[in-house]
Amino acid sequence: MENTDTVFETDAQLDSFRNRRNKARDGDAMDASHHDVQDADENTPLIAGAVDKNNDDWPEGAELARLPWYRRPHIFWVLAPFFLTTMAFGGVLPPKSTLMLDLTCRDYLQEQAILDPTFMVSPITYGEGVNAQCQIDGVKEEIQRRVAYLSLAITLVSGILSALVIPTLGALSDRYGRRPLLVISSIGTICNEIVFIFAAVYPETFNVNWFLVGAALDGVFGSLTVTVAIAHAYATDCTPPARRSVSFAWFHAALFTGLALGPIAAGYISVWSGQIVTIFYTLLAVHIFFCIWIALIVPESLSKKRQLLAREQHTFRKEGSGKFAINLPTLKILWPTGPGTSSALRWNLVLLAAVDTIAFGVAMGTLNIIVIYTNFMFKWRTLEMSQFMSVVNGARVFSLIVILPLVTRLFRSKRAKKTNSGSDLFDLSIVRTAMFFDTLGFLLYTLARSEQALYASGVVASVGGLGSPTLQAALTKHTPNDRIGELLGASGLLHSLAKVVAPIVFSTIYAQTVKTFPQAVFVCLTATFGFAFIISWFIRPHVHWDDLMAEQNSEEDPSITVS
């Protein structure tokens, strides 16, 4: 009887929520003249607060406005710890690559000593990545090949497991809140850091296969991909639709600022302490702090009522699918059918998702190759690698927080539409420009033969960072607000799959060509981003999902299910 009452109560709450949303839409039609003045657009400062009590298009705003400030969700509650986490993620890449180079060098020299008893093995200095016996022509290329395959295996294990759990963890966050899942996503990262600490403390006896165990633990809890996806979902929960693209830009800026500052901070920690293990201890402390902050300080963005509604809806869908139905990861949100949709909408979503996957997933999935390549070409150590990554990611952050807002202010009309009406020509121009600079940057990587040229190539490619937040915002402009979480989950799944497939393809290319033409991998990356640039011209402006039409059809004909 109690369960029946709960169901009735949930249905009533859902009806109430729909009524408020419909009234908000009616109010929007009646007060359109006022919206030109009152509504926010991309130029509206985010610092003014995510909760707008007068935002009729966002009924959830009134509910959040009633909360005291310390319980009111806001993106800045999550933004600071998110920045520290991305800083740790960026800072750990160079020392991890250095450690893998050293351990692979150790294994190779031990193999040679077994094959040739007269072979003398010189002591290895762990934490440098540059050992004399492994820098000899012929040996150096073999070490690079082995490290490329090791990095590939690590990325493959983590990426596959992450791709499998992302939809489940994302759905759980809809039903049980964002905070628990943000904490869970960090558990695997903490375990992975502990594995690398053991590798740094006991390098003479550490088996590199343990890196795969750490990668598996990282992947099974979702890794950084889940953290990014749920952080975006948190922003979606507590930000009005008109300001949502600004929130995404803040998170992307935090991501790449962390990737920029993390490596150079890690490099100086290594120089200051003289031990690479100090970096791993520091980064472990950062991840533990993130878990504590999220668990104890950050307000939950999903109210208990909304969590209850999501659980009940999940139960109804599960019962409708059959008792033994298996919920597999789905991308059907990218190919919607039914009232309010069109073929142009479906193709726009597919093309935007494809370009977004290349722009973010492929780029993130090839970071290790660039780090290993710099060691091969210029014998860079941890500090030099860290400085390079900091400059490149710093240029990307500059593009996000200076160039993009400036261009937006100069060329986008302040009277642009506030409702979801699809991407406009300005959005598409930013995307196409970003893909052009990505293509040009990797072409310059192919041609670079000096350190200065490599830095210039990285800076040019970093301008392509304008594309990722614009693509994410463009995707959300094509779908109703109540489907954005599902859309971001599908996008996160594609990102995770790209971070699996891209390393397989490009690491294999690098490993097979490093002895003859090590720049071949950059030729392939140039072609990949060139393809993204071409298909971006087939995306049509002002195409969107008419959710009001879909809902009206659903109400008139109960047999129609909007899914």
TrEMBL record:
How far does the signal peptide extend, from start to end residue? none
In which organism is this protein found? Answer: Peltaster fructicola
Q: Does the keyword RNA-binding apply?
A: no
Coiled coil (UniProt feature): none
Keywords, sorted A to Z: Membrane, Transmembrane, Transmembrane helix
Q: Which residues form the Major facilitator superfamily (MFS) profile domain?
A: 83-544
List the GO terms this entry assigns under cellular component, sorted alphabetically: membrane
- The source's superkingdom equals Eukaryota
Keyword Cell division in annotation = no
Molecular functions per Gene Ontology: transmembrane transporter activity
Q: What is this protein called?
A: Major facilitator superfamily (MFS) profile domain-containing protein
State its location(s). Answer: Cell membrane; Membrane
TM ranges? 75-93, 147-169, 181-202, 208-235, 247-270, 276-298, 349-376, 388-408, 429-448, 454-475, 487-511, 517-539
- Give the bilayer topology: Multi-pass membrane protein
